[in-house]
């Protein structure tokens, strides 16, 4: 997707509320998707993944939803905590053989006390 | 298990110079990928190596190159540096580099070109 550069979309939520971060992907042939969390000064950290033969997958406090019809991915974080504040990226693997991930522009999640 | 290790953490180079960045993957991982992260373009794929062979390549000029050694460690090189090459360079590893397996990232090398 297009990058919005320094002006990342920002989602502000109250501590304890649920967060929903959305992502539109570009390649209808992509069959594997990942959500990453990136904190300042660190590399992206794996959160959860989903294959295209699934619509939903749950982890600990996180759920990923995949809507292939509209090429949309979402990450739901339950009971958001201050430690969840970070930039979140979705990624789709466009490699037919091996790995060639395309990353979304990212969303900055800010958790308010 | 130790994570992906990238060295050096920070680099400052002058336009026209060349630079080599190093990456040690998670022990046992055979696939290594490199990404460039900038505020303007976000995370962009550079290349992927598996068993010492470049398996995938992104849309970067030939000044960007890489290699992988028999122990799966990888290096990337940028020649004739330009100001626009200033970025965070991220290395990621994966066990077999399958199309449905996640990347595990290091904390990156921050390159500044002056």
Largest beta-sheet characterization of chain A: 6 strands, mixed
What percentage of the residues of chain B does DSSP assign to strands (E)? over 45%
Oligomer: heterodimer
Q: What is the terminal-to-terminal distance of chain B?
A: 37 Å
Provide mean pLDDT of chain A, rounded. 91
- Protein chains sharing the most extensive interface: A-B, 30 and 31 residues
State the share of residues found in helices of chain A, binned by percent: under 10%
Assign the structural class of chain B, choosing from mainly alpha, mainly beta, alpha/beta, alpha+beta, or little secondary structure.
mainly beta
In sequence order, what are the helices and strands of chain B, one letter per element? EEEEEEEEEEE
Major sheet size, sense and barrel closure of chain B: 7 strands, mixed
Bin the strand percentage of chain A: over 45%
CA radius of gyration of chain A is 14 Å
Number of H/I helices of chain B: 0
Q: What is the N-to-C succession of helices and strands of chain A?
A: EEEEEEEEEE
Low-confidence stretches of chain B are none
Number of strands of chain B: 11
Judged by helices, strands and strand pairing, the structural class of chain A is mainly beta
Number of helices of chain A: 0
User: Which shape of chain A, going by the Cα principal axes?
Assistant: globular
